[in-house]
Design a protein that fits this description.
Elements: H1 11-40, E1 45-49, H2 54-60, H3 71-81, E2 85-89, H4 105-121, E3 127-132, H5 140-148, E4 156-160, H6 161-164, H7 171-186, E5 190-194, H8 207-217, E6 226-228, H9 241-255, E7 264-267, H10 278-291, E8 296-297, H11 310-317, H12 324-332
Parallel strand pairs: 1-2, 2-3, 3-4, 4-5, 5-6, 6-7, 7-8
Helix pairs in contact: 3-11, 5-7, 7-8, 8-9
């Protein structure tokens, strides 16, 4: 007993409450720092965006829920997310969809591409436009050549396999797609491709089709960036086994240093939503690591309907089980087709 009559505690016992408190404080500080790091990171660009003209709204009809959306409105959405750059992917291919009959179809395709270029030119330091068309149409190579010589449309092309009903099991379709890839390569134009086959018509899609794309189509464009949209899916969400299987083939090709995959990039537009399951989130994170964070581009897709807007889409993306350094790397990625500031 001490002179004062109380029980004496050994030094270790006296220090335990203090040490425990210190650990709690340190853990809390680390948690706050990680959260702050994530909150402060904003993507350098949104590399999968769209604008919608009045012609688009008329084409799609009132039941689509699509409204006019111009570059000024897109810029406001990017500003809200702290994003400086954006790529406006023309949706002119919709006028060439085999599901529609459009009078003066090619003229409307040209008009839509030109309108998209005009929109990007309103913010030349921040936006660029990509030309688009159905690659199976007789005018496809003509429009590509026109875009290659039209200032503002010469950066690249956007192809939509699903909307254009391109079927990679059809040798004629593959041959046409190869011609378009070769022409884009010859003109130094990047390619963004929505690879997912038509869902409504239940066209075959998965590992076999991805292998055809890898082995037969990509070799036609060996020198330009090829950006696979939506991680080879369509969005919103990524609960699509066919898309996962297709992406698996492409990810394996990258990991195995397949020369055909040398210039592949992948955007994550709309594949991560607020309701993503832990299993799907883990799959997306694992695939990102397989292809490497340096090949992954942020995108949010059209700011219409139920699609998340750029700020909300990035917040959802940050829920993936990735490290802060991995998020920061993806956020900083700038594809080679985007002009230097």
């Amino acid at each position: 007993m001490r002179p004062g009559g109380g029980l004496t505690r050994d030094p270790e016992t006296r220090m335990r409450p203090t040490a425990r408190l210190l650990r709690i404080v340190l853990c809390g500080a680390v948690f706050l720092l990680v959260g702050a790091a994530r909150a402060q990171v904003a993507p350098a660009g949104d590399y999968h965006q769209h604008v919608f003209s009045t012609a688009d709204v008329a084409l799609l009809g009132p039941s689509s829920g699509i409204a006019s959306l111009d570059a000024d409105q897109v810029i406001a959405l990017l500003d809200a997310a702290g994003i400086r750059r954006g790529v406006l992917l023309s949706i002119a291919y919709m006028f060439g969809s085999p599901a529609r009959t459009v009078e003066d179809e090619y003229a409307k395709v040209r008009q839509e591409n030109d309108w998209t270029a005009v929109q990007a030119a309103r913010h030349p330091e921040r936006l660029i436009a990509f030309c688009s068309f159905n690659p199976l149409k007789a005018y496809a190579l003509i429009e590509l050549e026109r875009c290659a010589h039209r200032p503002g449309l010469d950066h690249g092309i956007k192809l939509h396999v699903g909307n254009s009903d391109v079927q990679l099991d059809d040798p004629d379709h593959v041959a046409r797609l190869r011609q378009v890839f070769a022409a884009a390569n010859a003109r130094g134009m990047a390619i963004v491709i929505h690879l997912r086959a038509n869902i409504n018509k239940r066209r075959p899609y998965g590992a076999a089709q991805a292998r055809i794309f890898l082995d037969q189509v990509l070799p036609a464009a060996p020198d330009v960036p090829v950006q696979v949209a939506h991680f080879a899916g369509s969005g919103p969400g990524y609960d699509d086994p066919a898309a996962q299987a297709a992406m698996g083939v492409l990810a394996d090709a990258v990991a195995n240093h397949d020369p055909h995959a040398r210039n592949l990039w992948f955007d994550v537009a709309s594949i991560v939503d607020r309701d993503i399951s832990p299993a799907t989130a883990a799959l997306v994170a694992a695939t990102i690591r397989q292809v490497g964070v340096g090949r992954v581009l942020y995108g949010s897709d059209a700011a219409q309907g139920g699609n998340l807007r750029p700020r909300e889409a990035w917040a959802a993306f940050l829920r993936l089980p990735l490290a802060p350094a991995e998020f920061a790397h993806i956020a900083a990625n700038v594809p080679p087709y985007f002009p230097e500031p």
